[in-house]
Design brief:
The structure holds two protein chains of two kinds. Chain A folds into two domains: 232 residues, FAD/NAD(P)-binding domain (3-Layer(bba) Sandwich), CATH 3.50.50.60; 195 residues, no CATH class. Chain A contains twelve helices and 19 strands. The two termini of chain A are 23 Å apart. Chain B has one domain. In chain B, strands 1-2 form a two-stranded antiparallel sheet. In chain B, strand 1 and strand 2 form a beta hairpin. Classes of the chains: A alpha/beta, B mainly alpha. At the A-B interface, helix 11 and strand 18 of A face helix 5 and strand 2 of B.
Amino acid sequence: MIIDASEIKAGTSIPCDLCIIGAGAAGITIAREFDGIGLNVWLLESGGYELEQPTQDLYKGTSTGRRYFPLDKTRLRYLGGTTNHWAGLCRPMDAIDFESRAWIPNSGWPFNRDHLVPWYMRAQPILDLGEYIYNAEHWIDENQRLLPFKTGTFRTEVYQASTPLRFGTAYREQLRKSRNITVCLHANLTHLQVDKPSAQLKSLRIQTLDGNQFSISPQTCTLACGSIENARLLLSSKDIHPDGLGNESGNVGRYFMDHPVLSRNGSLMTTSGRIPEIYYDPYYFRQRRPLYFTVLLDEVSQRQQQVANYSALFFPALLSKGVKSYRRISRKLSRDQVITGWWQHISNILGDLDSVSSKFYYDHLTNKPAPLQLDFYNQWEQVPDPDNRVTLDRARDSLGIQRVNIRWQLGEIDRRTILTAHRMMALEVGRTDLGRVRLGISENDPLPDTVRGDNHQMGTTRMHENPALGVVDANCCLHTVHNLYMAGASVFPTGGSTNPTLTVVALALRLADHIKEKLA
Amino acid sequence: MSLITRRTFLMSVLAASAVSPPVHSSFSPVDMPRYFPDDMFALIKEIIGPVESIIKIGQTISETRPKLAVSLWSVEFVCQVFDTHSPPEPDRVHRLKNRYRKRITSDFEDGRTTLINGWMLSTTEVELCLAMTGKLRKLAQIPL
């Protein structure tokens, strides 16, 4: 059932078997796993069914270091969470992403990718994806081919695109009908109360924006509020440690990561127009689902060059002003339509005669395919750095909880990764005579200011078997509180170069299995 | 760079005469083609690429890398391309094209590359563009 927190009598203490905080991709996935199995489950959501500004404002915060997104814009705080504005691209992380790599400080997950595959497979239908196959060769027809990269340099895989599925809309009905799951909207967790001797979470203090307060006493609790809020809630709960819950080793909030992105940086000019269209076709569908072909730096190269993971999508270059005007005039003339802004078009064409004459030549004077320029959309792995972190700010939100500050900076390996990837791409493209590559950045230049994140917040409550090096264990349980779990990308020790949602849902399913076993 | 041998010296002199614009006269053998510039342009386009592109790249290189040295291989190759006594028969074109293609591939495989305005080009193609630009501009009657 779905209720509103304002309906709950003030001061009430509600017992339950499992309480999940946050109804985004991870929270809803875990809750659904408990539907109909006889346990009393509460799923708390700070927002309602739609975006409400006062609730969204709870996300406001500041950032330092490299320019980052406004914290109240990059995430959404209502039923379905940030899936309400995600793009829907999914791909599992690569095997190398789980390894402890000597050249990537603080890398290594407590398990390998093979371990996670069963949950990856279960995550596919939840995200409205097709078969669990990401090998590009599987998805092309007989007459299509992939770029002929030398083994060990680059390889092609696909992103499967979800609808994109809005979890709040897609699963609301199931949650509403559930007899053992209570979704409580407008319920904000403000404090986690822990019994120090037993190292057990005892109760959760819940508050609405209009002042109603009550508590929940769960046997087990999972925080699924995203990387920034998970850390914020732990840092704000100082009952047993002044630096925050689970923060004995000082790791809560640290190793904050995102995927560095450089859009339209570096490009490939074909010499013979032989780049298969599948690499830049935005409407390539198989099994009624869109697929996006991505070029990945192979793990052999990552090892040899000692760089992080890297992937690129190709976009056709933007047309110049002159060519746009030329195309518009040609189109209008061929349809006998009136041309407006005539002088502006002429001026654009005269100022860009080289491109326009080339376009004219390939349109009318030859049968050869025109050279094609493809720009790179670069997305790569950020090296986990303890100095990139979420900390509490002095300012407080309307619930009295301290707001956060994000420090996000990139390092030398992050710079070297994209540089190396572009150089290797240029060598491979030249070797195979596909064309020539223009490098996005120069050997000695710093990363440009245009590098941004990709709204993929990760890290902050990282998974590590050693309590001195992580916040949660391999089961995503806090090292110091035995019935408090973390769900979502906050547990990622490293983030690979792929979009994280599929891995988030796979880990949520794995966590649900673990909690079921524990509660049984 | 290898030591100068008699062969190197002779090749360099020959190449220089092919590449540099003549001071006063146009009586050197390479300036008296047995076939017309259009045929030469077609030959070069078939082997390397469009003449306009070569000239454009060559100009950029001479502006950005004025001290770039040209290897013996490139000097020899330019001489063969501009050998106006050998008509552009299919066999010859095919042979030159293959030689050029193999050289470019091995350049990229061995990392012999040069960055020009951010574009990674094979060092050989850079040298050829540089070496050919003067001669091509003259043939195309583009003012120097």
